Description:
The chain has one helix and ten strands; from the N terminus they run αββββββββββ. The strands form two sheets. Strands 3-4-5-6-7-8-9-10 form an eight-stranded antiparallel beta sheet, with no helix packed on it. A hairpin with a 2-residue loop joins β1 and β2 (28-29). The protein folds into two domains: 1-27; 31-125, Lipocalin (Beta Barrel). The radius of gyration is 19 Å and the shape is globular. The chain has one helix at residues 2-23; strands spanning 24-25, 28-29, 32-39, 42-51, 57-63, 69-78, 81-88, 94-102, 108-114, 120-125. By secondary structure, the protein is α+β, with helices and mostly antiparallel strands.
Amino acid sequence: MKIKVLGLVVISFLCSMSLSAQKNFDGKTIQEVKEWKIDGKKKTLDGVTKYDDKGNKVEEIEYDSDGKMRERVVYEYSGKKCSKESHYDESNKLKKTVTFEYHENGKKKSQSTFLPNGKLKSKKEFEYILK
Length: 131
């Protein structure tokens, strides 16, 4: 029993270290991460991810091989959970909006996808099967 409790404490500690590592780099808060594609001597920007002061991802931009924006996603939060994603095309025109609802325990309850005109395109509900 003591070994199980000690194991849980160690796992909890490692998980918390992993989460803080995502928010910090050398003791500083990460604001932006750039991804570069290297092809021989050619270096092309492949993507940019931006974070807020809490370490939440607030924007992702993907670029094509010519360095032009292919897609942009903006994230909004309610507390610590992502509540909305806004997806934009290469012209920075809204393609779709995805909203999320969560159970009290923090697990995802549902996901709704809306067209740019606000009409519901699809909805998913999440069912958790427990042992």
